[in-house]
Amino acid sequence: MVSLVTSQRLTLRLVAAGTLNMSFVPVVEIVGIFVTWHRRRVVSFSRSVDLFFLGHGPWVLGIVAFAAIWAFATPEQAFLWTAPHRVWPLLVLTLVWSGYIDYSFFRRVFERRRGQAILDVLTHRGISWSLGILIFGAGPLAAHIVSVIRR
Amino acid sequence: MRTIRISSVCLVLVSLLLGTLSDAPRTHPPLMVGGYRVLVADFHVHSFPLSWTTLAPWDTVIEAQHQGLDVIAMTPHNHVWIAKVGHWFSKLIGGPTVLVGEEIAAPRYHLLAVGIHDAIPWNLSAADAINAVHRQGGVVIAAHPRKKFWPPYDDAALDKLDGSEVQHPLIYATRAGYPEILAFYERTHAAAIGDSDYHSLGPMGVCRTYVFAQENSAAAVLEAIRARHTVVLDRDGRTYGDPELIQLVQENPEFAQLNASYDWSNPGWMARVSALFGILGIIGLSVLGWEKPSA
């Protein structure tokens, strides 16, 4: 994705860089899985991780659609078509769809009741996304929070 | 499923081969105009981590070199250590001139502090932040100064600005973006600056500044910005900056050739096939080609 968005093609240099730098994403997700798995161990942890990551289809499709725009459009067009107000609907769709898949994962694989499964989805996302945002973009976070509070 | 997986792997491998072969670095010979060395610069570049982007400082420096940029300012949000890593790495490999900087992302304004050594706190007023940067010997550039960022700039703050972004990707993303940052620039006496605000989206240098400096060094670039020795072009050929320098470059065919080389509209058939095969391969591997786990 990094390579397609940056250089309109797949290059070894950017694929390697993107893969290495973004490897924190599966790591923080695994931390989130560990916390939810630890409450009641129905299946092994490694199998939980394998099965959880099978539910990433919506994210992959969303990211590939985003990368395809950057790969085939000119940068000027891509900036226009991926402006935040245009990307929000795709992001919301991906969030809801992947949220349902994660909910189903906790219901079926971890054998949670409905309320517990919803709590697990929220716990997993709360942990993995908080860690992810801190690593990815903590720099302007405090100022942004102040800006939102002052609005 | 096995056929899909094998086909997908083949597509990705061919994509990588074509993409890597076609990814030639952009080069240009040193250009002298009016006794100045013309440097291609991007003063608003972010790096992973902490700044909402994906390339580490060393990848960022290599990408800048790949795009033929002579100068970049690495401007992580509200800190400088990432920029210092990039500066060190570029010196190590003989890469472009890397200026240590910071994007001071305050609640009501964003400023680029370029050529500093210590981070400037984000909770200062715009005028105090500008003074703090100047005390460190740096220059201050108003970052994407859209209307919502205007109030903190009183007349004193406007006078102290060394540069103002007049080209930035937001001019493509929003209809109001271009007139707003242009109106802000016209209120200042600052150098015209074009920046890509690089977050690994699109090419670095998609908006860029031509700096007219005595030489390619950090000190000479900072001095050129202070002296307003910059020229910025938009995609329709409108020019901003020093009127005398604009006249010089308009008469210079080598400059026109240099500017025209920064065109990403047609990356070539190998890049197109690489992108197509890569996308199909990724979809095949990620969505269609997984082996169902045993029960």
What would you say about this model in short?
Chain A is mainly α and 151 residues long.
Describe the protein's architecture and organization.
The complex is a heterodimer of chains A (151) and B (295). Chain A is mainly α and 151 residues long. Chain A has one domain (2-150). Chain A is 81% helix and 0% strand. Chain A is built from 9 helices and no strands. The longest helix of chain A has 25 residues, at 84-108. In chain A, 30% of the residues are buried. Chain B has 295 residues and is an alpha/beta fold. Chain B has a single domain, classed as TIM Barrel (Alpha-Beta Barrel), CATH 3.20.20.140. Chain B has 11 helices and 11 strands. Chain B has helices at 2-22, 57-66, 81-93, 126-135, 155-160, 170-173, 177-187, 218-226, 243-250, 253-260, 269-288, and strands spanning 31-33, 36-45, 71-74, 97-105, 110-114, 139-142, 163-167, 191-194, 209-213, 230-233, 239-241. In chain B, strands 1, 2, 3, 4, 5, 6, 7, 8, 9, 10 and 11 form an 11-stranded mixed beta sheet that branches. In chain B, helix 1 (2-22) runs antiparallel to helix 11 and helix 2 crosses helix 3. The longest helix of chain B has 21 residues, at 2-22. Chains A and B meet through helix 1, helix 2, helix 4, helix 5 and helix 6 of A and helix 1, helix 2, helix 6 and helix 11 of B.
